[in-house]
Amino acid sequence: MSATDRIIIDCLQYCNWSRGIFEDMQAGGVSAVHVTICYHEQFRETVSNMEQWNRWFHEHSDLIIPGRTADDVRSAKAQGKTAIFFGFQNCAPMEDDLGLVEILHQLGARFMQLSYNNQSLLATGCYEAEDPGITRFGRQAIKEMNRVGLVVDMSHSANRSTLEAIELSERPIAITHANPAFWHRAKRNKPDDVLKALGESGGMLGFSLYPFHLNGGPQCRLDDFCTMVAQTADLMGLDNIGIGTDLCQGQDDAVVEWMRNGKWTFETDFGEGSKDNAGWPEPLAWFGGNRDFGNIVEGLRAKGFTETEVDQVMGLNWLRFYENSFGPQN
Amino acid sequence: MSATDRIIIDCLQYCNWSRGIFEDMQAGGVSAVHVTICYHEQFRETVSNMEQWNRWFHEHSDLIIPGRTADDVRSAKAQGKTAIFFGFQNCAPMEDDLGLVEILHQLGARFMQLSYNNQSLLATGCYEAEDPGITRFGRQAIKEMNRVGLVVDMSHSANRSTLEAIELSERPIAITHANPAFWHRAKRNKPDDVLKALGESGGMLGFSLYPFHLNGGPQCRLDDFCTMVAQTADLMGLDNIGIGTDLCQGQDDAVVEWMRNGKWTFETDFGEGSKDNAGWPEPLAWFGGNRDFGNIVEGLRAKGFTETEVDQVMGLNWLRFYENSFGPQN
Question: I need a labelling partner for A73 at 20 to 30 A (CA). Which of A80, A222, A266, B128 fits?
């Protein structure tokens, strides 16, 4: 498989979407992106965000297509376009209404985090002091998500809740954007027991390139990142890892503040930042946008990954996961 | 084509849905029904109604399937089930938001009336004193409905608005449930010029069996009804007529009051009824529910319709219309 044949899938971005970014995706050979379309929005607001995406699909049909199935990734690849898969970083869009899970899936949602930093109706977020695990409503939501083909994403959830989600879910789950805590200790990164359980259950980890999740922050070296990828492959299996950059290209500081504070606090929560470092982190030298996936490919090769292994990490593992995850439960 | 091979499509019902009624549909050999899922509900409430239908599809999958395309009708026929197509009797579900047209289509909506008795944001209803025609927003809505494949239904609209909708729409429209005014004068029945324009544009009329729309009301004779069908075929073409019974099986009187009054009046509007006759009309002797379509077949035969013509009126005309109407515009 040559570089131009490689299927690249990025399983998490939240950019300030524009034609320029869609052109970057095309230039970077990105065949599929899981895009965050909501953090704190409830159902009606999420639908407005979907309406905006429908307009973009219409206006930029030469660059992007709606992503619903693994075949859409292959179709995008064949056309030199990017398939866009919708995801939520919180369960706010389903409100308190189990029937909305199927409705949201019908509208194209394919990933939903059960919580975002805080306690939700379903699960605990990674910033809470206590983690009582998956709630009663959460158990029903996981069951319904399994039935319709909406992937459980525990990227911003606390560890007990994550382990319980892995156990309760009858289909493999995902942590679309995080790194191992063994490499860089951060509330958003995941301990070995979570990663092992995730790998053993057939789940997927997407490696984040968000500087707060990286050893050395914005100064993290590509070589160090790729060493971590190799170590994680040893820990949880080469079949269970992919890319989930958490790329937030072109967003201004008001957006990261809104992501952290939403509607839940009138005080300012600085999330992974601090009062003196409240905005977006500096970008990496070797990954600043959708044109830079080739650098990761080079880094993995330099680390000794075979071409087949590089293909798996860059896209084929996610493609297999998409194939098995988005349709009705067997 | 034998009776068991005949495809029966009823292009309007609003029953008090239950397993019993779905069993009636099966027993009556009804392969597709356009069901009203909203009158006055805005978007979020309409979605709740869709959630209820999703549950019914799940619980009664041996009897009903979601109807989205003409192929779903054929598939339902082959399985001895009924394909259920969603429609709205008003434009309330799209609120003031053009982007909701595509969202509603994604969720399965296939028919939308531009107005229900009253003036709407899009068009005038048949009970208004004045009919200024299709509004500015209405023109945009028709264009977008054409684009995505959501059929314009003018059953409860006023005549000028209806003629303008026929003219403005680039795809044929429908009057899913009404009768000709030449047979029975009623605000809901349609004058010759509307029916002729509808037929010439490739649109469809579904004959209503709601007693208020019938000559003689509940005492209307099958023979008289079938004479009217033959006369309407002469007026607008045999290819452009079908059945849209307006069957409201099992509903209690509170429902017809709500249909008429919705949220728009605190006084009581009696619609087609009156203070002394406020509830549902008495049912017809020869059509009381989904098991009775065979009586219409017999009536049409007795009137001299050939088997081919009977097939067209009972379902094949609607099937062709479904085939051409529900996908993206060419």
Answer: A222
Distance CA A174, CA A177 (A): 9
Per the structure, the complete domain to which residue A162 belongs is given by 7-325
Q: Does B330 fall in a domain? A: no
Contact residues, chain A, for B106 at CB < 8 Å: 106-108
Q: Is residue B270 part of a domain?
A: yes
Q: Are A117 and A162 in contact (CB under 8 A)?
A: no
Q: How close does chain A come to B58, measured CA to CA in Å?
A: 11
What digits encode the pLDDT tens for the residues A98-147? 999 999 999 999 999 999 999 999 999 999 999 999 999 999 999 999 99
pLDDT in tens, A152-171: 999 999 999 999 999 999 99
- Contact with chain A for residue B148, Cβ under 8 A: no
Query: What's the total number of domains in chain B?
Result: 1
Question: Which domain CATH number covers B211?
Answer: 3.20.20.140
H-type alpha helices, B18-156: 19-27, 43-59, 70-79, 100-106, 136-148
Q: Which residues of A touch B55 (CB under 8 A)?
A: 99
| CB-closest option in B44, B103, B108 to A50 | B103
Contact status of A300 with chain B (Cβ, < 8 Å): no
The token pair that represents A202 in the structure block: 């057939």
Q: Is A133 left (phi over 0), alpha (psi -120 to 50) or beta?
A: left
Contact B54 A99 (CB under 8 A): yes
How many beta-carbon contacts under 8 Å exist across A and B? 43
Do the Cβ atoms of B99 and A43 come within 8 Å? no
Measured between CA atoms, the residue of chain A closest to residue B97 is A48
Contacts of A55 in chain B (CB under 8 A): 99
Q: Which residues of B fall within a CB distance of 8 Å from A52?
A: 99
Integer angstrom CA distances of residue B25 from A77, B19, B33, B286: 45, 10, 9, 16
Residue type, B262: G
pLDDT tens digit string along A198-239?
999 999 999 999 999 999 999 999 999 999 999 999 999 999
User: B86 has which bridge partners?
Assistant: B35, B109
**Residue A1 falls inside a structural domain:** no
Strand ranges for A62-139 from DSSP E: 64-66, 82-88, 109-113
Within-domain flag for A277: yes
Q: Is B55 near chain A, with CB under 8 Å?
A: yes
From A47, which residue of chain B is nearest by alpha-carbon distance? Answer: B103
**Predicted TM-score (pTM) of this structure:** 0.93
